[in-house]
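Second opinion, please. Pick holes in both lines of this record:
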Amino acid sequence: MARVYVLYTGGTIGCVTNPEGALAPVPGAEFERLALSVPGLSGHGVQGYDGLNWTMGWFDRTLDSSNMKPADWVAIARRLLSVYDEYDGFVVLHGTDSMAYSASALSFLLPGLSKPVVFSGSQVPLSFTLSDAPANLVGAIVVAGTLPVPEVCVYFDTKLLRGNRSSKVDANRFAGFDSPNFPPLATVGSVVARNEPYWLPMPDKGVSLAEPDNRSRRLAVLDAQVAALEAFSVVMLWLYPGIRASTVSAMLTGTSPAVKGAVLLAFGEGNGPTDPDFLDALSAAVKAGVVLMDNTQVQRGAVLPGAYATGLGAVGAVGAYDMTPEASYAKLVCLLAGGLDAAAVKAAMPVPQAGELTVIEG
């Protein structure tokens, strides 16, 4: 028998129209009643999948994903760890706007996963007639209960994507998510097509969260990380023609709490302006202890360190290779919350931890 824990956090999937005509997420108990009315999910089972059962949990407050903070990532991770031994897979129902950030963060907060953690949601509320929510909800539960994928994933519109490789690519269409630089882990249709060569391997016993001691140690790490989050900030800076050095300085230095990391959304393969004042502003931030990540604004392809004379590596920015901006941001936050200094974070960022990047030589 497979048991799946479904954690409802809020988001569009759980919204109804309030008296003012705006969408607002319903409390957990009310959403569970809505979920039980979905064809195929009555009685906390799944039609056509004998022995597959699901249980729903929720937090006291629901969240629009636009209001998600890093502390909420830790809360999700802690909840999953607290029930880890009781279930075979996990579904996190989440708003779509910041789902890729949360899924990326969970991949770094929960190293040693031996079971699937599947994020899902919808573009249209479950309470609406023409909604993608029923298919996404049923599909996510089935995937979490039947596929032994030992990693954090996003399930949306029949595709199972690696969480830290996914991005929201459409605000309206049901195919709202994609993994531009990595193949789907599985595709659901009349049959479930597994892409197992691209799955992460099962963790060794020494780090596996299947071991109670490892879960206890991980909970202690999460406690320390959530306590550290208030002491620093990480920002994302989109580069554009004519960006001023004063703008960069204002964002990266002299803030409270202090900026300790910045994801630069650069041009093409990681290019930025060569204006001396602009580069001086970045250099000053690096000297002040800010870790700079050189990401691209482009969805597909990779940052190739040193490919152009206008590369940002000369001022100390770390090339992100093919990491998504969401994964870069989440990884920076998690490493900095772990108490690492700037040099250690800079060294760790271009090293794969959870399948989030491909190191490209050259």
About this structure: The radius of gyration is 21 Å. The first strand starts at residue 2 and ends at 10. Residues 2-221 form a domain with the Rossmann fold fold (CATH 3.40.50.1170).
